Amino acid sequence: MLSSSLADFQVGIIGGGPAGAATAAYLAKAGLSCVVFERELFPRPHVGESLVPSSTRVFKELDFLDQMEEAKFPHKVGAVWTASMNSRTYQHDWSDLPNEYFADIRFDERKMEGVDKEYTYHVDRGKFDLMLLEHAKNLGATVYEGVKVRRVDFDSDPRPRIHFYMGEKEMSVNVDMVVDASGRNTLLGNQLKLKVVDPVFNQVAYHTWFEGYDRGGSDIADYIAVHFLPMRNSWIWQIPITKTTTSIGIVTQRQNFPKIKEEREDWFWKYIQTRPDLYEKLQKAERIRPFKEEGDYSYAMKQICGDRFVLLGDAGRFVDPIFSSGVSIALNSARIASSDILAAAQKGDFSKEQFKIFEHTMRCGTRNWYDFITLYYRLNVLFTQFVNDPMYRLDVLKLLQGDVYDEETPEVLRKMKEIVTKVEQDKNHVWHKLLGNLTDKAFQPTF
Q: How confident is the model at residue 38 (pLDDT cuts 50, 70, 90)?
């Protein structure tokens, strides 16, 4: 039974996904009392199955790497980008572009501080999220599943009070501070009216799992594959889940997506048919999950911390998932915030000032992700030119590894923007017609 008169826990965490579970694990491991309120019952399916190497540092610090290996999640060794070689599809002669699948890159080409593995993982999010939450519990965190938080009362004196339902009974508990890791439900973002919708990215994803899909030769079978579609700002993801199961999803602009639910499966196959090489292989595979839609893709918050609260992962910022940034941002926001929370607890001071390192670092990191993604969409298939150019390759790889938190603006981003601007302004440039048009005004987001 939870007391309603005293702070039963030092930290209350809303949400048990990667951001919430990792935070609970960090804090419990350090000896702080914390409670996690998760509205769903795990395991539950979730999109976002491909990780980036920056996640490995968190797993290592939380003594979680052995469990990742024991789960036999497929090792993700790199990324590959492909496009149709049918020139009529894109109305362009591909002979001036590099090779048959355009570009691939391996994580072992660059060493990353704090990471001693040359790969990361593709995961079944249902299994992975449950494992990480159970790990936090084993470290000493209190975890309640199937508990929906209604609101947080910051006017209660002297500590915030979290109001929630346990079954049909409404209850509450006081804490020293609140961590909002509620994902795209953004509980505090909505309650405190902090949420700002991204004016540029209005993407939607439609995805499912296939059994027996031929992912390609052994040289790229364990990569994440991004397949360009001949519609601007549209692409297909291909993510290994097990040796034989593959996640396939289409991402496109909302305006291209059918409003009528019954038309969406036909729409999926129509888009897939624009890539005959992929369509043929998918026709031979078996779909083993219902199709699912993901929308409301990109938004920011006016602030990601305040007196006695922080916003982590998707609860604080969400950008288009083209580079598998979601789980990485969640885990690294937990890592960075936990350091500030532990210092605040030692001082007994949970004011906003205590979270300035977290705020600055996450604003910097998510801004770099955002700028990288906007440039990617602007470049369209031309992004592969930077991957294949030795002058930029390792700098691009650093971003793809999720190593984005230590520089205000990486030099490679400035160079990419400079080249894009030059191509934009020259209508006779051989690349001009290949540029995307989604993010041409997105280089300087206002939030």
A: very high
Give the pLDDT score at 297.
62
Q: Which domain holds residue 273?
A: 75-121+199-294
Range of lowest pLDDT (37-51, 201-215, 286-300, 392-406) = 286-300
- Which amino acid, 105? I
**Are 266 and 248 within 8 A, CB to CB?**
no
> Looking at the domain assignment, is residue 442 inside a domain?
no
pLDDT at 438: 55
Domain count, the chain: 3
In a shared domain, residues 114 and 126: no
Beta pairing, strands 34-38 & 142-145: parallel
Instruction: Give just the sign of the alpha carbon dihedral 105, 108, 114, 117.
Output: positive
What is the reported pLDDT for 23?
98
Residue 414 lies in a domain: yes
Find all residues with CB under 8 Å of 95, minimum gap 6, and list them. none
Of 363, 384, 417, the residue that ends a domain is: 363
**Is residue 299 scored above 60 in pLDDT?**
yes
pTM given for the model? 0.91
Residue where a domain terminates, one of 363, 391, 410? 363
